[in-house]
Amino acid sequence: MAKLFHVPLSPxxxxxxxxxxxxxxxxxxxxxxxxxxxxxxxRRNPAGKVPVLKIDGKTMSESAAICEYLEEKYPEPSLMPKxxxxxxxxxxxxxxxDDKFHSEVTSKLVGERVNKKVMKLGFxxxxxxxxxxxxxxxxxxxxxxxxxxxxxxxxDVMTLADFAAAAHLSALDYISDVDWNRSEAVKDWxxxxxxxxxxxxxxxxxxxxxxxxxxxxxxxx
Length: 221
Description:
Blueprint: E1 2-6, H1 11-22, E2 27-31, H2 39-44, E3 52-55, E4 58-61, H3 63-73, H4 84-118, H5 126-149, H6 160-174, H7 184-194, H8 200-203
Helix pairs in contact: 1-3, 1-6, 4-5, 4-6, 5-7
């Protein structure tokens, strides 16, 4: 069985978890306090980051590389379209969320409100929180624009792009930092993603000291 070293609210770990679950690959989840720099963990990934996946006799790091490996080794169900142009669009949107969205939103909201406390790094920086709360509006509007032109974020079928976005938004939703009333299209998109069997384990996550809001696991939110 595969084994994933992860942190529950890490969007990068969640993206990998969603890919594994969608492809019905059984996987043991092991929470890893990577910030403690445990020597055993550093031997698995000298970069000292999660996720780290042990599968097929290999130890893998970097969520983008892991998801590409899973797609190539376990192609069904596919999370990448066939055409070169469509695959580019998926990778572009995955990059948007894993780079721009994370830098402007996730790191400033989940990072300040949850990670700092868990890692004992002090109190949240109120300016960062305000910046993140302002930036998420722009990103939700961009998602709404995309969904006005296509059924899913990268095209007419669900792809890894949708999982990348949902990984970030679900982590933010855990701390009630998403205004789902800002866009009906985004809310409907998330409801479709959230109702997939692959999402079940994510909706069961619990972070000690941070209980999720009542709507978090509600499929009819």
